[in-house]
Task: inverse folding
């Protein structure tokens, strides 16, 4: 967790090493978590319900045990240690204050159980060590101090039922911090409070964290809360860590579409890299600062506040305002560009129906590599009505370019309306599914039934085992084009193979209308 | 077909508050049958008991019945024996029922409630039949006949155990597990959690269990007759004898009234009146 604003000692208080928790019903709530928390840090686990954040917290507290991996506290393995032996205290979601005890006894609960090592000196100056309980006076003092910290002085004799939600919350915090834990765990502690109370408590908790110097691990699904309070945020989803970073990093440089979507409002578009630091989305090419391979399918994230409205024609792309609503500090405006919508914020009052231009500063365009769902290539049609892409030539059905078209004897395409189209050298986008690619060893030429001219030759550069199949990447020599596909066969990395695709599995699309 | 009319104006129908006229049925009238029932079957019999208790055979007001009751060693001994038997039964029931209820509520053994059902089922079998069967069973294994008092206690514990298990189980199974986690989190081991959190929080169940066992065992003479070989008399039997054998309704009513007071006192002691307040706090 680099680049914290505050400088912490680089000392890890908690280390999670390969921690996995699988429930009895087979659900994996937490999948191979590896991270650490530094002493004194305020760390937030952020994610939607069911993402594994509470399970992780419960494992740190000791209520749940990992099915795999280990949890280290100050470098010591505590995975098997029961909760009552851990120097960690929890503020529970619904406070869990004991209803049969008054406020004093609730807070003193942990103190009364605690044993301390007291050292005495007898008459001869000999030191005697004794394990003993805290005296009543000591307990009373500590409780008083804790109540002062949470601003509830004089509440000792009150019963739990007479307190408001906010006050119960404070008592729950006092009950935990009075034990001087090394780590304080907070499980959505503000969830039950109203908005105003929540904001106040956020600030108070942050102050308390500063004053006490205890490591806080905070669980929430509220992204704003996480951004306000944390030194470090761990974003989780579906039992996996999505991103770890400071609030600024998480907000400004989300690692994937999930994080971008979960943290704050954002516009997410599917785009394609159009060249060196250029990305194509909303039908236009935008300059950006991220560098990906050309034609790489990417997710483009733009925060509403980073979209600038300009006069028509002066932006990168033009659109029409379809929605505008006053939000107090700004107007939220939705601009329709082609079939896409982009949400923006502006201080100017604009009218629905106005035409505007849109620009986004290159550094505000966040680009994330997309999980590959299919192979997409730039290609062209040859004079033989085959298609060249990925450093190879493949047979394809060009009549799919135009509905109900046919080919005449000379190989020209005749459209539905009877127009003759010359397809030679026409640029097309080629899409091939992950399951539609097969490969063959080039050493056994004799076995190949296909014409030697077709297909592409490449080297297997990566094999990933995906449970019931392998995902392979074959890269061609010439232009380093990649073919990604699934197979159940076993191959070796480094094998030189021929990539074969059936005619009907090659989906071609025209990049531009052909001038006739 | 409706006739086509020219629309002049359409406005929503306004409902104006109407004045109540004459007798109208309202929610509070639903209480009437219950009121009548309570008057006929609770207040009236109680009034009759009080009337008989404070009058003599000729209908004149007197405290003779109470004087006779408290000066007669036999009746007093009966009351003391009844209280002691009921106390012993309640205590044994509590000691047996708490672990059972705890295991039923906490472990996976009771998944689907089958095990709980087995404990509760005897309650649905005829009570006299059960008592007879238990007596025969005890005789068969040779336990019966050591001591009449022990016999009676065994019989009563057997009969009333489900009444102790059920309320404790109910409280324990509804108890929020986060209290136990909070306790462990704050440094308490399993035993400390049991004594400091689970036990205090199950007090409402314990007190209603005590109420449900202690009171009936004072009066239920079917068991004392069956298991005590007819040699043990408890308060219930005493009252019965006054009404049936001796036809002395006045003394019978006086004893019943004394019993009522004992029960109110015992309820006050076990906190039966307060149980609602305790439940009100997050339970």
Result:
């Amino acid at each position: 967790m680099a680049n914290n604003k505050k400088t912490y000692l680089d000392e890890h208080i908690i280390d999670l090493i390969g921690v996995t928790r699988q429930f009895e019903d087979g659900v994996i709530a937490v999948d191979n978590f590896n991270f650490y928390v530094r002493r004194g840090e305020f760390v937030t686990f952020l994610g939607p319900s069911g993402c594994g954040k509470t399970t992780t917290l419960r494992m740190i507290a000791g209520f749940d045990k990992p099915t795999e991996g280990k949890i280290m506290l100050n470098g010591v393995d505590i995975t098997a240690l029961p909760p009552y032996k851990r120097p960690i205290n929890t503020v529970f979601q619904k406070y869990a204050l004991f209803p049969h005890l008054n406020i004093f006894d609730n807070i003193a609960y942990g103190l009364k159980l605690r044993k301390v090592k007291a050292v005495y000196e007898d008459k001869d100056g000999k030191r005697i060590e004794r394990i003993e309980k805290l005296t009543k006076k000591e307990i009373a003092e500590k409780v008083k101090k804790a109540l002062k910290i949470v601003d509830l002085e004089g509440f000792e004799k009150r019963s739990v039922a007479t307190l408001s939600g906010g006050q119960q919350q404070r008592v729950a915090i006092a009950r935990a911090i009075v034990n001087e834990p090394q780590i304080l765990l907070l499980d959505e502690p503000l969830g039950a409070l109203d908005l105003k109370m929540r904001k106040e408590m956020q600030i108070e908790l942050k102050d308390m964290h500063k004053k006490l110097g205890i490591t806080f691990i905070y669980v929430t699904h509220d992204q704003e809360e996480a951004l306000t309070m944390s030194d470090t945020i761990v974003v989780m989803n579906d039992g996996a860590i999505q991103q770890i970073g400071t609030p600024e990093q998480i907000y400004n440089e989300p690692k994937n579409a999930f994080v971008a979507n979960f943290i704050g409002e954002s516009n997410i578009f599917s785009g394609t890299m159009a060249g060196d630091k250029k990305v194509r989305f909303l039908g236009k090419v935008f300059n950006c600062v991220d560098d990906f391979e050309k034609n790489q399918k990417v997710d483009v994230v733009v925060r509403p506040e980073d979209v600038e409205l300009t006069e028509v024609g002066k932006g990168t792309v033009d659109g029409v305002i379809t929605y505008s609503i006053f939000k107090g500090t700004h107007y939220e405006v939705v601009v329709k560009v082609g079939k896409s919508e982009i949400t923006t914020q502006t201080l100017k009052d604009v009218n629905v129906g106005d035409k505007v231009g849109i620009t986004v500063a290159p550094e505000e365009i966040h680009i994330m590599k997309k999980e590959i769902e299919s192979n997409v290539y730039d290609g062209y049609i040859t004079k033989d009505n085959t298609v060249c892409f990925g450093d190879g030539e493949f047979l394809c059905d060009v009549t799919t370019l135009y509905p109900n078209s046919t080919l005449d004897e000379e190989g020209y395409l005749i459209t539905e309306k009877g127009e003759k189209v010359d397809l030679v050298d026409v640029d097309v986008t080629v899409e091939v599914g992950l399951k539609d690619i097969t490969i063959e060893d080039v050493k056994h030429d004799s076995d190949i039934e296909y014409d030697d001219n077709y297909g592409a030759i490449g080297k297997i550069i990566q094999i990933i085992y995906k449970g019931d199949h392998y995902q392979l990447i074959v890269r061609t020599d010439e232009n380093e084009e990649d073919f990604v596909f699934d197979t159940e066969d076993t191959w070796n990395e480094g094998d030189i193979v021929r990539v074969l695709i059936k005619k009907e599995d090659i989906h071609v699309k025209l990049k531009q209308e052909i001038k006739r | 077909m409706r006739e086509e009319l020219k629309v002049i104006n359409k406005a929503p129908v306004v409902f104006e508050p109407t004045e109540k006229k004459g007798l109208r049925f309202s929610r509070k009238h639903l209480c009437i049958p219950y009121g009548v029932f309570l008057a006929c079957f609770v207040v009236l019999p109680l009034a009759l008991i009080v009337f008989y208790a404070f009058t003599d055979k000729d209908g004149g007001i007197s405290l003779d019945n109470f004087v006779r009751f408290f000066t007669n060693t036999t009746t007093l001994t009966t009351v003391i024996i009844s209280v002691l038997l009921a106390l012993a039964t309640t205590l044994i029931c509590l000691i047996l029922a708490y672990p059972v209820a705890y295991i039923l509520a906490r472990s996976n053994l009771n998944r689907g409630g089958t095990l709980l059902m087995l404990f509760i089922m005897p309650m649905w079998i005829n009570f006299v039949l059960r008592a007879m069967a238990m007596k025969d069973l005890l005789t068969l294994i040779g336990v019966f006949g050591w001591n009449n008092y022990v016999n009676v206690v065994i019989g009563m514990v057997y009969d009333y155990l489900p009444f102790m298990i059920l309320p404790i189980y109910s409280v324990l199974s509804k108890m929020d597990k986060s209290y136990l986690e909070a306790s462990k989190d704050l440094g308490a081991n399993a035993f400390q959690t049991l004594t400091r959190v689970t036990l205090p929080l199950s007090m409402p169940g314990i007190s209603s269990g005590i109420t449900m066992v202690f009171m009936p065992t004072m009066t239920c003479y079917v068991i004392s007759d069956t298991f005590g070989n007819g040699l043990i008399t408890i308060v219930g039997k005493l009252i019965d004898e006054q009404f049936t054998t001796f036809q002395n309704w006045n003394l019978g009513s006086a004893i019943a009234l004394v019993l009522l007071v004992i029960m109110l006192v015992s309820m006050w002691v076990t906190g039966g009146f307060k149980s609602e307040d305790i439940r009100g706090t997050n339970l």
